[in-house]
């Protein structure tokens, strides 16, 4: 067995091999610097007897950038010149030939970052986009696992648990029952924070009955607002009020995805004038079958991608350079698709969006931990998508019934309890308390006057 010599050397005194064929980007060099600063220089540089680097070129450069005066070196003196060149190639190639167990890697990274959130991804050699791809593990436009759209019981006969003004804390997410045309609910769910991205599905100002509903098989009550009662001018004003608040409470450079049907293309563009700096793109969501309609069934919805402000926007796909090939045509199954589970989802909300479509939008234009604002929370798909992609959802919804459905849906998906922000009471506890109070209000007859009944509150809690 050959003897090896280990010693410490000034990295500036080491010479790169003139035969080194491995290239290192500035990004990789920066990541190595962060790793050295976080964990120390915990490897060895392989050099020959003349101080020429055989393995560890990038680490030596990073050590210099990190300001190290000494690095550990392993000196090998038994190789011929040809063997040294061959070893340098082999050392790089063997490392490049290995692969990751992506499922285990995702678990490890999640556990590390959960316990030590101060550890930068750069120091681990990853960036946020790579981590997103590991966690979600779906190609763009993949429909996603069916359990993403699992539904709670609708319980339409029960009065809502939520009342106007209630705010629920759902893990990293928040939802408030309020009118998104006014500033207070934005302040309540955002505080001093700003949204990194907006997903908005405002009412389309068309009646739900006759336009939405499983090819006519499902009937919905109308939305609380924007169900065809507004004139064109009024609808523009309605959208402008919300757009101004969306812009005010989001970061400069944020992308705002706004869903709208073809009937109101003119109104949405008119409303956006003077508020948004640019229409970045017009996206067409193509569904797998048509919805309701007489003069051609509608098989698509439009998604306006507006830019708020002038700063650089987040682009996590860059024309496929980061492994996400994205176009302005989004192919996702529509809720009107055949199948009982899709009809059940349609019952939850008349214009519900598939979770994976919203998750892909988040992966495109936001970062892990970033806030995604949705001023029309609806069925809660934005919250489920944020949970799935490790974003923080902030939802506003005026209808308490939809708030209840969103909270129940999140609780099933996340297997956690939603907490009332003001009282600390869990959603389930409040629901059970209200049920007991309703059941306690029963009438019982007076013994001597059976025709007269009184209310018994003895069971009230």
Task: Please give a quick description of this structure.
The chain is an alpha/beta fold and 461 residues long.
Structural class: alpha/beta
Please indicate the count of domains.
3
Oligomer: single chain
Overall average residue pLDDT: 84
Secondary-structure element order, N to C: EHEEHEHHHHEEHEHEHEEEHHEHEHEHEE
Tally of contiguous helical segments: 14
Low-confidence stretches: 210-215, 217-223, 338-350, 457-461
Radius of gyration computed on alpha carbons: 29 Å
| CATH homologous superfamily identity of the largest domain | Vaccinia Virus protein VP39
Q: What is the count of β-strands?
A: 16
Strand content: 15-25%
Ends: how far apart? 81 Å
Query: Largest beta sheet, briefly?
Result: 10 strands, mixed
Instruction: Order the strands across the largest sheet as they lie in space.
Output: 11-9-10-8-7-12-13-6-5-14
Helix content: 25-40%
Shape: elongated
Proper CATH architecture of the largest domain: 3-Layer(aba) Sandwich
Assign the CATH topology of the largest domain: Rossmann fold
CATH class annotation of the largest domain: Alpha Beta
Could you characterize what this model shows?
This protein has 461 residues and is α/β, with parallel strands linked by helices. The protein has helices spanning 26-39, 57-65, 81-97, 102-115, 121-124, 128-136, 184-190, 232-248, 265-272, 340-348, 355-365, 381-389, 400-414, 427-440; strands at 5-9, 45-48, 53-55, 71-76, 167-170, 173-177, 195-200, 250-260, 278-286, 300-307, 329-331, 371-374, 392-397, 419-420, 442-445, 453-456. The strands form 3 sheets. The protein has a 10-stranded mixed sheet, sandwiched between helices. The chain has a 4-stranded mixed sheet with strand order 1-4-2-3. Helix 1 crosses helix 2, helix 11 (355-365) crosses helix 12 and helix 12 runs parallel beside helix 13 (400-414). It is elongated, with a radius of gyration of 29 Å.
């Amino acid at each position: 067995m050959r003897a090896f010599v280990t010693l410490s050397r000034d990295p500036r005194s080491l010479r790169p091999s003139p035969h080194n064929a491995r290239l290192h980007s500035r990004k990789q060099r920066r990541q190595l610097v962060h790793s050295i600063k976080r964990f120390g220089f915990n490897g060895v540089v392989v050099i020959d007897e003349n101080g020429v680097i055989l393995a560890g070129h990038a680490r030596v450069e990073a050590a210099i950038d990190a300001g190290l005066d000494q690095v550990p070196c392993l000196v090998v003196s038994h190789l011929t010149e040809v063997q040294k060149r061959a070893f340098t190639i082999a050392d790089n190639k063997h490392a490049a030939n290995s692969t990751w167990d992506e499922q285990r890697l995702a678990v490890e990274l999640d556990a590390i970052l959960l316990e030590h959130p101060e550890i930068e991804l750069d120091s681990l050699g990853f960036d946020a986009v790579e981590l997103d791809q590991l966690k979600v593990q779906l190609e763009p436009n993949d429909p996603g696992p069916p359990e993403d759209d699992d539904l709670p019981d609708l319980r339409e006969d029960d009065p809502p648990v939520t009342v106007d003004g209630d705010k629920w804390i759902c893990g990293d997410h928040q939802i408030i029952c309020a009118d998104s045309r006014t500033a207070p609910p934005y302040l309540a769910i955002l505080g001093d924070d700003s949204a990194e991205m907006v997903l908005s599905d405002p009412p389309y100002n068309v009646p739900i009955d006759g336009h939405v509903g499983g090819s006519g098989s499902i009937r919905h009550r109308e939305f609380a607002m924007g169900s065809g009662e507004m004139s064109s001018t009024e609808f523009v004003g309605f959208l402008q009020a919300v757009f101004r608040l969306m812009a005010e409470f989001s970061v400069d450079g944020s992308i705002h995805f706004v869903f709208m049907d073809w009937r109101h293309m003119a109104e949405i563009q008119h409303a956006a004038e003077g508020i948004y700096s640019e229409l970045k793109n017009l996206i067409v969501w193509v569904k797998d079958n048509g919805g309701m309609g007489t003069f051609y069934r509608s098989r698509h919805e439009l998604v306006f991608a507006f830019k708020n402000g002038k700063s650089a926007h987040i682009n996590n796909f860059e024309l496929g350079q980061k492994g996400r090939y994205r176009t302005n045509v989004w192919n996702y199954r529509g809720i009107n698709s055949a199948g009982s589970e899709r009809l059940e989802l349609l019952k939850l909300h008349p214009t519900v969006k598939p979770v994976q479509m919203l998750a892909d939008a988040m992966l495109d234009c936001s970062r892990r931990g970033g806030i995604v604002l949705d001023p029309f929370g609806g069925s809660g798909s934005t919250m489920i998508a944020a949970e799935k992609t490790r974003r923080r959802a902030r939802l506003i919804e005026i209808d308490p019934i939809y708030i209840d459905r969103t909270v129940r849906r999140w609780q099933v998906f996340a297997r956690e309890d939603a907490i009332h922000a003001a009282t600390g009471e869990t959603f389930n506890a409040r629901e059970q308390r209200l049920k007991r109070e309703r059941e306690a209000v029963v009438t019982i007859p007076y013994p001597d006057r059976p025709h007269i009944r009184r209310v018994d509150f003895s069971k009230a809690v």
